[in-house]
Design a protein that fits this description.
501 residues, alpha/beta, Aldehyde Dehydrogenase, Chain A, domain 1, Aldehyde Dehydrogenase, Chain A, domain 2, seven-stranded mixed beta sheet, six-stranded mixed beta sheet, 21% strand, disordered N terminus, binds nicotinamide-adenine-dinucleotide
């Protein structure tokens, strides 16, 4: 691979602490490059160090009393304003996303829409934030609950949805009245800085939202362990998630960790095969397979397996690999060299384990793509549960296929994984779909639609190794960032003769 040649017009980014953009004090330079052409430098930043993270926490703590006292509907209107500002810049931000993360432009636009829908949903929570009233056992007594903010919260996000995941955490945290220290993945700092600029322009008071750009290993722990931090919302790998969960658990603070996936799609013999084909292609190769919800295992009813795979290979061969900003490109690059190498290592291991390579398996040969981190869409047949490709998340465009004879076998194999984020079941038989839905061990189930996606109004998240803590999005998303207070209001004005219970 030719050495990266830095371009000089890269954005220079800073940390955002207490309402001011300031240079990081860390030694490390954070450099974001285009994964489609690693010679193109998108942005540079002097990384934050521990002292910067502590300053950000102090700023958040100082801003909390006033932000907490701001009426929730007003906080919601501010989120709505940020959403409107982002909507006005949708195409520009989507282009930046493609440039920095690599997903193709239409997918970046889709991610923009998803994040905007989430912001609009959470803006409305400013009007709805509240508890319940219940009848008391006592006359002239009212029982009710309040939802109150927690204080300072840390939001730690991955690179693969650099717009939607930050906003689906930031919007509920802020509308609930918390002050945030936001640490994005260091591969996507430019988009993270734009997100913070948008919230700032919408009118967030200084200190309410702070940005620290830096390596997680240097500043991650302080964002979990500092006594000012009352909750951590994390999305990322299992390795880091487990550490965050353990450290937060040891302090007894609230924590949610959304982590990896190894999501199965089952195509049953009676399914609409063209519908299933479109869904499997999108699930396996969309966003270059770099989704926690990607379809990475395909379980085929033996009766249609050969026919389905023949069509899958035909369609995979038509996918144009390249720079996602170019029209007609269907598959972008891996996010960086490390991820590309991981994809290729998994491919080599699957070959060595005896899986049958049906297509792909290499970097593309086109010399025009030599400066990017591209991997061909890859399909392996004959993958067995003892193989690494069946068990481990690849996070690339690599699909593991196996065949089954019975429905029970399909369910058993779908559940034969340490993960449990999402799945898909393709069938024309509603009863079978319902039986699958009952039996499958995942947080989300798609019937006759791809494993990917989520909507603002319903909870998002997984079970088993895919997630711990409260679900995200919907009411759950905001509930995570609030504490409940139960109020016993006695309006008799009389001294109570006896306490109950
Ligand atoms: P990652 O775990 O490497 O990084 C995630 C974030 O954690 C980054 O901001 C990183 O800087 C930070 N971090 C690193 N070390 C830390 C530490 N010691 N303490 C605190 N923070 C630290 O993950 P990634 O490579 O950015 O993202 C890919 C992973 O994210 C995949 O496993 C994918 O499945 C998962 N993911 C899950 C979901 C979901 O909702 N379940 C969604 C998207 C991505």
């Amino acid at each position: 691979m030719p050495a990266a040649a830095a371009k000089t017009d890269a954005a220079v980014l800073q940390q955002f602490i207490a309402g001011r953009w300031i240079q990081g004090s860390g030694k490390r330079e954070i450099v974001s490059v285009s994964p489609a052409d690693s010679r193109v430098v998108v942005a540079r930043a002097r990384g934050a160090d521990r002292a910067d993270a502590l300053k950000a926490l102090a700023a958040a703590q100082a801003a909390f009393p006033a932000w907490r006292a701001t009426p929730a509907p007003e906080r919601g209107r501010l989120i709505a304003k940020a959403a409107a500002l982002a909507r006005g810049r949708k195409e520009e931000l989507a282009r930046l996303m493609t440039l920095e993360e690599g997903k193709i432009y239409p997918e970046a636009l889709g991610e923009m829409d998803k994040g905007l829908a989430l912001m609009e949903w959470f803006a409305g929570e400013g009007q709805r934030l509240g508890g319940v009233t219940r009848p008391s056992e006592l006359p002239q007594n009212l029982l009710y609950t309040l939802r109150q903010p927690l204080g300072v919260v840390s939001v730690i996000t991955p690179w693969n949805f650099p717009w939607a995941i930050p906003v689906w955490k930031l919007a509920p945290a802020l509308v609930a009245g918390n002050c945030v220290v936001f640490k994005p993945a260091s591969l996507v700092p430019a988009l993270a800085a734009e997100i913070v600029k948008i919230f700032n322009e919408a009118g967030l008071p200084p200190g309410v939202l702070n940005l620290v750009i830096g390596a997680g290993s240097e500043i991650g722990d302080v964002l979990v362990e500092d006594e000012r931090v009352k909750a951590v919302s994390f999305t990322g790998s299992n390795e880091v998630g487990r550490r965050v969960h353990t450290l937060a658990g040891a302090r007894g603070i609230r924590v949610t960790c959304e982590m990896g996936g190894k999501n199965p799609a089952v195509v049953w013999g009676d399914a609409d095969l063209e519908l299933a084909l479109a869904g499997v292609l999108k699930g396996a190769f969309g966003s270059t397979g770099q989704r926690c919800t990607a379809t990475s295992r395909l379980i085929l009813d033996e009766r249609i397996a050969d026919e389905f795979l023949a069509r899958l290979l035909e369609e995979a061969a038509k996918i144009t690999i390249g720079d996602g900003l170019k029209p007609g490109v269907g598959l972008g690059p891996a996010v960086d060299e490390g991820q590309m190498k991981t994809d290729l290592e998994h491919i080599a291991a699957a070959k060595a384990a005896g899986a049958k390579l049906l297509c792909g398996g290499n970097r593309p040969k086109d010399p025009a793509l030599a400066h990017g981190w591209f991997v061909e869409p890859t399909v392996f047949d004959g993958v067995t549960p003892d193989m690494r490709l069946w068990r481990e998340e690849v996070f690339g465009p690599v699909l593991a296929v196996t065949r089954v004879k019975t429905f029970d076998e399909a369910v058993r194999l779908a559940n034969d994984t340490a993960f449990g984020l999402t799945c898909a079941f393709y069938t024309a038989d509603l009863a079978l779909a319902m039986r699958f839905t009952d039996a499958v061990e995942t947080g989300m189930v798609h019937v006759n639609s791809p494993t990917i996606g989520g909507e603002a109004s319903v909870p998002f998240g997984g079970v088993k190794g895919s997630g711990v803590g409260e679900r995200e999005m919907a009411e759950e998303g905001v509930r995570f960032f609030t504490e409940q207070k139960t109020v016993f209001l006695d309006y008799t004005g009389a001294r109570r003769s006896s306490n109950i219970y």
